[in-house]
Amino acid sequence: MLIVTCAIIIRHGKILICQRSNTMDLPLKWEFPGGKVEPGEDEEATIVREIREELHLDIEVVKRLEPVEHDYPTFRIQLVPFIANVVGGKLLLEEHADAKWVAVVDLDQYDWAPADVPIVEQLKAVDM
Predict the structure, then answer these.
(1) Domain encompassing residue 80
(2) 12: exposed, middle or buried (C-beta count within 10 Å: 0-12, 13-18, 19+)?
(3) At a CB cut-off of 8 Å and minimum separation 6, what does 30 contact?
(4) Is the pTM above the cut of 0.85?
(5) From its phi and psi, is residue 79 left (phi > 0), alpha (psi between -120 and 50) or beta?
(6) Looking at the chain, which terminus has fewer C-beta neighbours within 10 angstroms, N or C?
(7) Closest listed residue to residue 34, CA positions, set 50, 55, 10, 52
(8) pLDDT tens track, the chain, 128 positions
(9) 10, 83 contact by CB (below 8 A)
(10) pLDDT at 127 (0 to 100)
(11) Which CATH number characterizes residue 37's domain?
(12) CA dihedral in degrees (111, 101, 126, 53; nearest 10)?
């Protein structure tokens, strides 16, 4: 099983979502940004590193949410979501096709990567 982290980054009451590029697996699907945990790295350090590398943002982790397990055709992942705030940097996309700040009520308007769907549902169930 692949352990992957993702960040629900909140700014001014909106959440940052990213669209996968044409060259990535699941092209043009929307996701919460993040990445794979490297050997010996803890999950919180992973999400801080990945967001800095992929989006040029510095984040502060606020809370870890319930992980999601998902079976893709060729692999299985555990997706570990973290709620985070931006504390520095300027958004610059390194890997994604697009990024948007959206309200929780608008999350259903996007075509999500399957593993992210349960996280969308978690967010809609709580008062952000």
Answers:
(1) 2-125
(2) exposed
(3) 17, 18, 19, 20, 110, 111, 112, 113, 116
(4) yes
(5) beta
(6) N
(7) 50
(8) 999 999 999 999 999 999 999 998 899 999 999 999 999 999 999 999 999 999 999 999 999 999 999 999 989 999 999 999 999 999 999 999 999 999 999 999 999 999 999 999 999 887 65
(9) yes
(10) 60
(11) 3.90.79.10
(12) 90
pLDDT value at residue 126: 76
* Closest of 60, 44, 54 to residue 9, by C-alpha: 60
Domain count across the chain: 1
Q: How far apart are CA 46 and CA 23, in angstroms?
A: 23
Contact by Cβ (8 Å): 99, 18 = yes
Q: Give the bridge partners for 31, in sequence order.
A: 18
Phi, psi of 80 (to 5 degrees): -105, 105
